[in-house]
Amino acid sequence: MGLSKTLWASPADYLRTHSPEHPVMFFSPETLQACAHEFLQGFPGLVTYAVKANPDEEVLENLIAAGISGFDVASPVEMDTIARLAPHAAMHYNNPVRSRTEIKHAVALGVKSYSIDSHSELVKLGELVPADGVEIAVRFKLPVAGAAYNFGAKFGATVEKAIELVTLADQLGFDVSLNFHPGTQCTDPKAWETYIFTAAEIASVTGVRIHRLNVGGGFPSHRLNEVVPQLSATFALIDRVTDDAFGDARPALICEPGRALVAESYSLVTRVKAIRDDAHVFLNDGVYGGLSELHLVGVIDRIQVFGPYGNRRQGDPVARTVFGPTCDSTDKLPTELGFPSDMEEEDHVVFYGLGAYSLATATRFNGFGDITVETVQRLVKPEAARQAIYA
Ligand SMILES: *Cc1c(COP(=O)(O)O)cnc(C)c1O
Q1: Are residues 299 and 353 in the same domain?
Q2: Do 84 and 7 reside in the same domain of the chain?
Q3: Distance, CA 95 to ligand 1 centroid (Å)?
Q4: DSSP class of 168
Q5: Is residue 389 included in any domain, yes or no?
Q6: Which of 46, 84, 120, 342 has the greatest CB tally within 10 Å of its CB?
Q7: What's 352's DSSP letter?
Q8: Closest CA to 138 of 160, 107, 105, 110
Q9: For residue 23, is it within any domain?
């Protein structure tokens, strides 16, 4: 993956002159910084970025430039990258399972915040990390619906277990915090409310002062035309509920979004390889490439189709099944998508809002997946695009 230094006005501007045969990701630093500012200005606490959503260095550099000063890291490679790009940034090592070698790596880099959800991992940290000035955040989970898929399936202690862990971490001399992740692409803000009230219960049962409450990632990105995320309403709810639940013992808040910070700043441009029997569309990228997440989180219908000269196809939408380029029969999008009736072979299909869990997880399976990255000044949302392209 190479990043060209040409700055295109928009994806259509590039398509007019290039007509790429391979998939192309269009990255807009301006959009990324705008998303960062939305979080920094709106969230009532410290905003950190979950590196795994998109660890591209251009992403990290633009977030740092926008003022993001903390990062959720999960591995030595992620820690080394942040330590190099932002030596003064806070690193929160919130992968609750780590080998002893990984813990020593974190200690050597000066990491001061770790999350845990099990007794054995807390004991391990107790042996390897000097407790003084170090935060242990106990991650708990609830059977809460509202997200695209359940993050509690792998990590998170039950409330009973969390109570034990908070007590023990306090006895070991750590600064005790709590964290949770409501599940990725969580479109129901009430999930945060339930979690925050439970955090206050854990604090009150244990009598331990909770330093910080990390309300996770999970903030949704804009995937469906009809469902526009209301971030500021969610921020306001988190602020109000934290006051209600904790009163005078209100902990400082942290959030660690991945998806909602980075998704909007990338669009994926794929090419139509074939339209078979007027029903099945074959694209040059699919679930083994930049669209890998659609199986788990659901389809993105914010698409536009461009003809050979960057002209936008305007026909009425026709529902079609979409396949990727590999020979694997699972390389198919989970639901049909509506494509303009005048779409033709070799047209380009732009998927908006694809910056998270796309480049980070793409494979080269079957010899496909050679995605290049181009920089654009702006990524126009579908509603606004018509005027922009025909202006
Ligand atoms: C993946 C992850 C995040 C980011 O989740 P999003 O749904 O992308 O916002 C935050 N915290 C932890 C611990 C994670 O594993």
Answers
A1: yes
A2: no
A3: 10
A4: H
A5: no
A6: 46
A7: P
A8: 160
A9: yes
Helix axes 231-246, 29-42, angle to 10 degrees: 30
Q: How far is CA 18 from the centre of its chain?
A: 30
In tens digits, the chain (391 residues) has pLDDT values of 555 578 998 888 899 889 999 999 999 999 999 999 999 999 999 999 999 999 999 999 999 999 999 999 999 999 999 999 999 999 999 999 999 999 999 999 999 999 999 999 999 999 999 999 999 999 999 986 666 666 666 789 999 999 999 999 999 999 999 999 999 999 999 999 999 999 999 999 999 999 999 999 999 999 999 999 999 999 999 999 999 999 999 999 999 999 999 999 999 999 999 999 989 999 999 999 999 999 999 999 999 999 988 899 999 999 999 999 999 999 999 999 999 999 999 999 999 999 999 999 999 999 999 999 999 987 765 544 333 333 2
Is 327 among the catalytic positions?
Answer: yes
Among 246, 262, 278, residue at a domain's last position: 262
DSSP code of residue 321: E
Closest Cα to atom 5 of ligand 1: 217
Q: What is the number of residues in the chain?
A: 391
Q: Do 338 and 318 contact (CB within 8 A), yes or no?
A: yes
* Residue 168 to residue 173: CA distance in whole angstroms: 9
* Domain interval for residue 243: 30-262
180 alpha carbon to ligand 1 midpoint, in Å?
Answer: 10
Whether residue 390 is contained in a domain is answered as no
Shared-domain flag, residues 248 and 275: no
Residue 367 makes CB contacts below 8 A (sequence gap 6+) with: none
- Domain total of the chain: 2
Quick one: which of 54, 95, 62 has its CA closest to 76? 95
Domain boundary among 242, 262, 282: 262
- Cα(186) to ligand 1 centroid in Å equals 11
CATH code for position 299: 2.40.37.10
184 lines ligand 1 (CB under 6 A): yes
